[in-house]
Target: Sodium/proline symporter
Amino acid sequence: MDTYLLISIGSYFLVMLAIGLYAYRNTQDDVEGYLLGGRQLSPGVMALSAGASDMSGWILMGLPGAMFISGLSSAWIAVGLIIGAYFNYRLVAPRLRIYTELANDAVTIPDFLGSRFSNDGQALRTISALVIVVFFTLYTSAGLVAGGKLFESAFGQSYELGIMITAAVVVAYTLFGGFLAVSLTDFVQGCIMFIALVVVPVVAFTLTDAPFDSLQQIDPQLLQMTTGVSIIAIISSAAWGLGYFGQPHIIVRFMAIRSIRELPTARRIGMGWMIISVLGALGVGLIGRAYSSEFNVDIADPETIFIVLSQIIFHPLIAGFLLAAILAAIMSTISSQLLVSASSLSEDLFHKLFAKNASSSHVVVIGRLSVVAVCLVAGWLAMDPSESILGLVGNAWAGFGAAFGPVILLALFWRNLSYWGAVLGMITGAAVVLVWIKLGLSGVIYEIVPGFVAGLITAIIASLLTPKPNQLKLAVFDEMKRQLD
Model:
């Protein structure tokens, strides 16, 4: 490995571990402190933490790779994501922040859903926790695949070693620092990603002679968003935005901001960061196609175009910083997913199901052990380097969006959503996604569309046929609306 690259990457790892140590020393050793940071995040930290945990390795590898292959037709994913993220801030964030505090001070999404409908809500809490663990393990494996590919293509190290190093550093700061460490590292990682996604496409553009003419000569379809693209394909790509309403690692950030009055500031920061970052990712793929054609650069794997451009164009010391952006994207998402999975295993399953009298410190210990366990399973799943990063992320994103999205929206906006409506809606959404993938129908339309629609319809019909929430629960819903007004 080049000395300059080693210095840059080594420094990045040390900074992440130092933040983890700081968070460990400043985190209260109780469940709310470890899993939610005491609900004291500033708007800037919350916004960049949500953005960085959202934009995993796919924004620097998966999305540019799709743009490299298909051109502007892949931009519909970005359009859907931006719209979905905006409405997530507008619709979900304020209601969830208030409601989770009113609902027995819930610190996890399953805890909120269980408290929303009954005093124990065991079935709903257990099902939602299992959905989180299953899909987040798959999601985490996608991040580790990206880490393995980075070390293999950029540093000349083995794919397996890349997975192990990435996992080890993430587990270290997540294990000890909890939610505060994850949020603070996400903030730093979000800043690194932002800089990299502006610098790389801009510099590559200036070095390429008439890039759009080059793209026109390669394939005119690369510069077309609609020509040759079916309506179903556009719907499938834009439907990624539906997933935002059901992503636990993102919406849990809304629960942690210190005041609902600071949400508009967080929204402006978060959306500004996201729009520029996504446009930068699209630019990397598109300009990278023109650059590689003009300078006869062989791109064996389109998902590594950001890595190739960083190494060819920039001095190794700067390239090391830019490649650290990929690690930032990967690690910020993995850490968030590990913590949410650990919270479900420790708080929603262990504490609420098997050890109701366990002390808060005992639950935190189980949470830390869960971080290690989930990462080990995800690492094992990631050992196949042929897996597509965007494909793995797409499956997990659809699973969460269809299982949680309709239920979260209805729980926050429809007072008559019943307990069994939520349970059956969640099961239906997740099941349809899994069956759709198993039958190989993802090429027909993205699985989140049938899953989300099926989950929504099931939840509404089941709620109309089963008992409504009791008056005490409806009173909490009304109090949430009163505080919003």
User: Anything to note?
Assistant: The chain has one domain: 3-389.
